[in-house]
Amino acid sequence: MKTADIASLLLLGALWGASFLFMRMGADQFGSMALAGMRAIGAAICFLPLLASRERLAEMRTHWRSITVVGLANSALPFALFSYAAQSLPAGVSAISDAIAPLLVAASGWMWLGEKLDATRASGLLIGLTGVVWLIAGSAGFGGGGGTGWALAACVGANVCYTFGAHYSQRRVRTVSPLTVAVGSQIVAAVALLPFTVWLWPAKMPGVPAWLAMFGLAAACTSLAYVLFYRLMARIGSTQTLAVLYLIPVFGVLWGLLFLHEPVTLAMAGGCVVILLGVALTTGLVRPRKPTGNAKAVACEQT
Predict the structure, then answer these.
(1) Coil, strand, or helix at residue 11?
(2) 294 occurs within a structural domain
C-alpha cells in the first residue's frame, strides 16, 4: 500500500474506534435511542449532497427494498444497541466486542449457508470465541439496574445484526454501488429512528460535550468514515481494507484510556488479543506456513 493509503486506513480505524468514545460521552445525556437517532439523522444530512447523482438515485429507486433491510440491519439496530451498551460499558470493551463480527459471519456461514471451514479458519473461530468468553467473564451479572452483562448482550446483538447484514448484502445488493448502499442505509436508519428520537427525547437538554460527541459521531465516525472506507475499497481492495477490523479495538481502548481515563483490565487486554488472533486466522490474514519441499523430505526421512 502507498503511504496515503496506510494513512487513510489508520484514520478510518481511529474514527471507528472513536465512535465508542463518543457514544460513551453522549449516551447518558441523550439516552440510547435519541443518540442513535441523532447519529443516523446527522449522517443522512451529511450524505445529502451525494444524492445529486442521477445514477445513485436510480439505483436507490430500483433496490429500495434491499437497501431498507441493509439500513435496518447495518445501521439502525446496531446504532441503538451500541448506544444502549455505552451507558454501562467502557468504550474500550464495546470496541473490543465489535471485533467479533467476522467470527459470527464465518460461524453462521458454516452452520446455515454451507460454507466450508478449513482447519485454520475453524481453529481461529474457536480461539476467537474463547476470547469472547474471556471478555464476558470479567463483566458484572445480568441482575437488576442494567448491569454490564446486558450491555455486553446488546453488543453481541449488534454484531448479530452486522452478520445478517453482511450475508444479506452479499446476496441482494452485490451489484449496487457500495456508496449508494451507504447513503441509502443511513437515510433508512434516520427515518426508522426518527419517531423514537422524538418520543424518547431527554427531558433535560444535553450539555455541550454531549452535543459535540453526537456531531462527531454523525459527521466523522459515520459519514466521513463510510466515504473513507469505500474509497479504500476501490483503491486497495476489500482484503486489505478489512484490516481496519484489527485497528478498531486498539483505537477504542486508546481513546477510552486517554480521554475518559478508563482502566485497561486483564479481561480487556487478554480478550482483545485472543479475539484478534481468532479473527486473523478466521479471515485468512494470518495462515500457517506450508512446509517447503526440503522440509517435507526431511519429515519423510525421519519417518
Answers:
(1) helix
(2) no
Residue 302 lies in a domain: no
Question: Quick count: other Cβ atoms within 10 Å of Cβ 99?
Answer: 26
Residue with cell 439496574: 145
Q: How confident is the model at residue 122 (pLDDT cuts 50, 70, 90)?
A: confident
CA distance 279 to 261: 28
Q: What is the pLDDT of residue 214?
A: 97
Furthest C-alpha separation in the chain: 78
pLDDT tens figures, 8-57: 989 999 999 999 999 999 999 999 999 999 999 999 999 999 888 888 99
Q: Tell me, what's the pLDDT at 145?
A: 45
Q: Is residue 276 part of a domain?
A: yes
Q: What is the pLDDT of residues 266-283, one digit of tens each?
A: 888 888 888 888 888 877
Q: How far apart are CA 20 and CA 142, in angstroms?
A: 22
pLDDT, one tens digit per residue, over 158-171 is 999 998 988 898 88
Domain span at residue 277 reads 3-288
Instruction: Look up residue 28 and give its amino acid.
Output: D
Q: Specify the DSSP class assigned to residue 80.
A: H
Q: How far is residue 165's CA from residue 162's CA, in Å, rounded to a whole number? A: 5
Q: Grid coordinates representing 46?
A: 451529511
Q: Hey, what's the cell of 71?
A: 439500513
**How far, in Å, CA of 218 to CA of 196, rounded?**
17
Number of independent structural domains in the chain: 1
Decide if 297 is inside a domain: no
* DSSP for residue 288: P
Closest CA to 78 of 100, 57, 61: 100
Contact 253, 96 (CB under 8 A): yes
| CA 248, 253, 257, 259 torsion-angle sign | positive
